[in-house]
Amino acid sequence: MNIDLVEGRDGEASAPGEPVLEAEDLRVWYSGPSGPVRAVDGVSFSLRPGEILGLVGESGCGKSTLGRGLLGLLPDGAARDGVLNFRGTDLLSLKAKQAYALRGGSLGMIFQEPLTRLNPLMRISEHFAETLKVHEKGISKAEIERRSLEALRVMGIPPTRLRAYPHEFSGGMRQRLMIGLTLVLRPAFVVADEPTTALDVLVEAQIIRILHDLRATYDTSLLLITHNLGIIAEACDRVAVMYAGKIVEIGDAREVFTRPRHSYTRELLRSTISLSTTGLNYIEGAPPDLTDPPSGCHFHPRCPDAMAICAQREPAVRTTDAGSRVACWDADRRDGLALSEAESAPLEREEIAVADEA
Ligand SMILES: Nc1ncnc2c1ncn2[C@@H]1O[C@H](COP(=O)(O)OP(=O)(O)O)[C@@H](O)[C@H]1O
Ligand code: SF4
Ligand SMILES: [Mg+2]
Predict the structure, then answer these.
(1) The pTM is what?
(2) Which residues line ligand 2 at a C-beta cut-off of 6 Å?
(3) What is the pLDDT of residues 294-318, one digit of tens each?
(4) What is the residue extent of each domain of the chain?
(5) Using a 6 Å cutoff on CB, does residue 127 contact ligand 1?
(6) Helix count (H) and strand count (E) of the chain?
């Protein structure tokens, strides 16, 4: 996997304008048999128009819950609180009907396995027309045609295919058609939850081009959840690293990849890079049970840099000189925070029994 940063990428980390989306201390939890599962536990960030924010972290850290929570697409029994504003509208106090009206039109979601939504009996043009008519009452035929062709172009599908049926497309193209059906509505904010896992890795470059086109054509802001750090490095302005329901580091993608501050970010980058070099090299252990996460910094049982204070007190979020936000005692210490000898002593852990002594 190539995570070299591309020179000549648009450069600036921020797009002008008021934030499209602002989350502050957002929490999402599921009810579970042994208490609430705190899948999103106090997340704060904002997105500007046209900005692409990558979201990374191991499975079970709350990425999908955050993405769905932002759009209000949570299952029964899940709840949210905190602050969540979309273009100045408080999403958390919207009535169900108002929230439904926003979804699709202004807020979009690209799912991991979208193929099921294409009707085999309907031409692609009919799919586009139906979607547009539902969300934009009274839209003209000419406008439907224009917008459909525009969506096809952004997705890299020839205009001559507009009247084809779903089965006439390859799997990868069908997936792009589904993305096109989300984008034809020109949503201001889209969540894409691992849109590329089902695709061949060769399609990666194409996806990156599409993401750039998307911004240029629609000024859409995107939260991109992916395991593919190569795509994040090349397509995202900023990256957020999530662990156990919290964003532990967020900043300019280039900065975070070249100078990760949080120990979890470093371990995550190390484990991913080594996938293509020395074989599998996972971070030992697994993310915690979110009904009862570890005290202090949730990562402390797995962290190679853990100090005594890490198990006792949760690190506060701090803005670094490079403009990232990071919550890590070790990063604080490296940047000059004075800790006592007792606080900075290496964390004593119970020995983890190693089963296989060959
Ligand atoms: N519908 C659900 N009901 C209860 N718990 C859930 C549900 N969906 C996800 N979870 C739990 O929430 C946590 C975060 O899951 P998820 O958001 O899917 O993480 P990720 O996308 O990072 O893999 C996990 O502990 C998962 O088991
Ligand atoms: S706060 Fe401590 S345990 Fe958590 S990542 Fe930083 S050094 Fe590791
Ligand atoms: Mg997920």
Answers:
(1) 0.88
(2) 262-264, 297, 299-300, 303, 305-307, 310, 315, 328-330
(3) 999 999 999 999 999 999 999 999 9
(4) 115-181, 263-344
(5) no
(6) 12, 12
